[in-house]
Amino acid sequence: MEGRAAGTTKLGRMSPSVYVGGGTLGRISPGHDLGYHTLVTRQTPTPTRDRNTPTRDRTTPSPWSEVRASPFPALDLSALSSCPRSSPRPQLPQIPPQQQQTTPQSQPSLETTDQLLATYKGKRLARSSPFDKLSDELVVRILSFLPTNAVCQCARVCRRWYVLAWDPRLWSTITLTSDGIHADRAIKQITRLLARDSGGCVHVEKVILNSCSRLSDRGLSLIGRRCPELRHLEIKGCVNITNIGIFELVTQCVSLEHLDLTGCPQITCIHLNQQGGMEPEPMHSRQLYLQYLDMTDCYALEDQGLKVIVKNCPQLLHLYLRRCLNITDIGVKHIASYCLMLREVSVSDCVQITDFGMYELAKLGPNLRYLSVAKCDQISDAGIKQIARHCYKLRYLNVRGCEAVSDDSMEMVARSCPRLRALDIGKCDVTDNGMKFISEHCPNLKKLSVKSCDMITDRGVQYIAYYCRGLQQLNIQDCQVTIEGYRTVKKYCRRCIIEHTNPGFF
C-alpha cells in the first residue's frame, strides 16, 4: 500500500499537459525532459492499460480529440487517471519512420535546429528588423546623415551595424561639438578604429571640434599623425590649444587649406620650426598651403606673430582678424606684402589701425573683394577713398562705426566700385546726398545698413528704393525715416526685408 501510494503520489505530480503544435512532440513531466535527443533516439514501449480501468464514454466528446487527430502518436491519457503498479511509466512517443522522412514543405516549423530548440524550450524567436531587408549601401547612406556621436552609438546596436558604422566612407568628416566630450580620448579611439586596417585615417579630410574645451595639444598632435590628408580643421573656443599643438598639426598635415582658430586666446603664431621663434622662415624654406585662416578673438596675436603667419602662408585668400586688439598698421603692412592674392580681409574692432593701414591694403588692388573695418574709429575718408580707387572690384564694404566717414568717401566708393553688393555705413556721417550717389552708381546693391545714421531721411531711402529695385535687406533702425519712406521701399523693392524700430510701420 505504501508503494502504491508512493507511486500514485509520484504520478500525481506529473503534468497532464501535452504540447503538440509548433514542432513539439510531447511533454509529460519535467523529470523526463531529457533534451532534444529524446525526440529522435529514445526507444519507448507502447504503454498498456489495465482492463479494470474505467473507460470514457465514447459518446462524450473528448477534450483530447485534437491531440489524437494530430499526425504524431498521442499518449494514452487514461494512464494518468489510474496507474496500477503493473503499468509502465509513460514515455515520450516515437516518431514513425514514414513521418521522419517528410518534406520541409509539410513541416515548416522544423526547418532549423535553432527554431526547434527555441520552440521546445518555450522561447520566441526575435522578429527581423526592417533594416535587415535593406542593403548595406542603403544603410551606409542613411548613417551618413547622422553626426559623429550618433554613428558611434549605432555601432553598438548589432554586429552588422558595427561593421557598417566604421565604413571609411562615413568618416570623411569628424564632428565633435560639445563641452562635455573628452575630445582627446574620443579622437584617440575614433582614429585607432579607423586606422586598424589601413594604418592611417586617409579618408578623413574634415575635423570640427568647436567648443571642445577639453581638447589639448596632445589631441591635435594625434590628428596630425593619423590624418595626413586633413584639409579642413575648426577648433573654435578650444582655449587650451597653444602654438605647440598648431605646430604639430600643420607640419604633418601638408594639405591643410582651411584653419579656424576663433576664440583660441593662447595662439600667438603659426610657425614651422621646432623652437617656435617669432622670426619668419627663409623664402626657400617650406611653406603652408592655407587658403582660409580665421583668428578672430586671438587676443595675444601681435604684429610680429602676424608677420610669421603671412610669410608662411603666402597663398591665403581669406584672412579674418576680428578683435585682435594688438594688431597695428605694421601688421597690416605685412599682410599686403606677403599675401598678394587676398580676396577677403576683416580687421573689425582692431582699434589701432588707421588710414595708413588702408593705404597698405589698397596695394592688393582688384583682387580684394571683401573688406571689413567696422569700429576702427581712426579710419576716415582718406583711407576709404584710397581703397575705392585701387580696389575697384570690391563687392562688400563694412565701415560701421567709423564716424569720420562721410559723403565725400561715399561718392568715391559709388563711382569706383559699381559692382558693390553689400554696404554697411551704420553710425557714419552720411547724409541723403551720399545715399543718392550710391543709388545712382550701384544699382545692383542687395544689402544696405544705415543703422543709427541720424542725417538720413525719407529722401535718401527713396533714392535707394527707386534705383536699387533688387534690394533684399535694408536696416533703417534708429533713423529719421517715416512711414512714407517705408512704403516707398515696400512699393519698389517687393522682396526687401526691412529692419526698423518704428512700431507704426506694421
TrEMBL record:
PROSITE patterns, sorted: FBOX
Compartments where located: Cytoplasm, Cytoskeleton, Microtubule organizing center, Centrosome
Extent of Basic and acidic residues compositional bias: 48-59
GO cellular component labels: centrosome; cytoplasm
Region (Disordered): 28-110
Subcellular location, principal: cytoplasm
Compositionally biased intervals (Low complexity): 77-89, 97-110
Domain F-box residue range list: 128-174
Recorded superkingdom: Eukaryota
Protein family according to the UniProt entry: Belongs to the FBXL7 family.
Protein name: F-box/LRR-repeat protein 7
